[in-house]
Amino acid sequence: MLYCCFTVVVFLIGSVQFHIIIAACVAFALFFMPLKKTGSGLVPILLFLVFTFAGNLFYQSGKVIVVLGSVAVTDEGLRIASIRMFRVFDLIYAAKILTHITPLETMIDSLRKVLHPLEKIGLPIHDFFSIVTLTLQCFPVLVQKLYGKYSGVGNKRSLKAIASFVIPLFVESMADPEKFFTDMKGER
């Protein structure tokens, strides 16, 4: 719920100074997380932030600051680009912080409790979150099975080779889920 409130606040306030302060707070909180967790996905996130900034920088009305050939950078374009870039940064890294300090099962259980009243209007909330929980439990088992059965694949990482390994595992897990998970517990 706190993250949802954070998201609303980040989108409602349009002050550059506010977004700089929030981004600094988020960046400070990242120092208390393991480097592996904060650094994962860093390059795609940085590219996304650069494209967000550049995509909003040009073609805005306002006082012209710099002219680059046929495009002009305006003060309003710089303000909008900065705010939108900081919003994306804040949302992505606040979500990383949230997933670091709160186990996924706890988040799912909390969402189930919050959305439980929707079952009164006929939405299958309990069923949906039960499926989500089972799916999340299935992924580590599938990864272990892949490593266990197909570790000698070597350089055959083409889409066709991976599909030929993954599809039988999915079929096996759907055909007899009890046996699939029981076998994995026995291998641990």
Q: What this model shows, in words?
A:
Strands 1-2 form a two-stranded antiparallel sheet. The radius of gyration is 23 Å and the shape is elongated. The chain contains nine helices and two strands. The chain has helices at residues 2-12, 16-30, 35-39, 42-57, 75-101, 104-115, 125-150, 159-175, 177-187; strands spanning 64-68, 71-74. It is mainly alpha-helical.
Short descriptors:
single chain, 188 residues, mainly alpha, two-stranded antiparallel ribbon, 9 helices, elongated
**Distance N terminus to C terminus?**
36 Å
What percent of residues adopt helix (DSSP H or I)? over 70%
What's the helix-strand series? HHHHEEHHHHH
From the structure provided, what is the oligomeric state, counting identical versus distinct chains? single chain
β-strand amount: under 5%
Strand order of the largest sheet: 1-2
Average pLDDT, rounded to a whole number, is 81
From the alpha-carbon coordinates, what is the Rg to the nearest angstrom?
Answer: 23 Å
The description of the largest β-sheet is:
2 strands, antiparallel
Number of alpha- plus pi-helical segments: 9
Low-confidence stretches: none
Class per helix and strand makeup: mainly alpha
Total domain count = 2
List the helices and strands and how they pair.
Elements: H1 2-12, H2 16-30, H3 35-39, H4 42-57, E1 64-68, E2 71-74, H5 75-101, H6 104-115, H7 125-150, H8 159-175, H9 177-187
Antiparallel strand pairs: 1-2
Q: Nutshell version of this structure?
A:
The chain is mainly α.
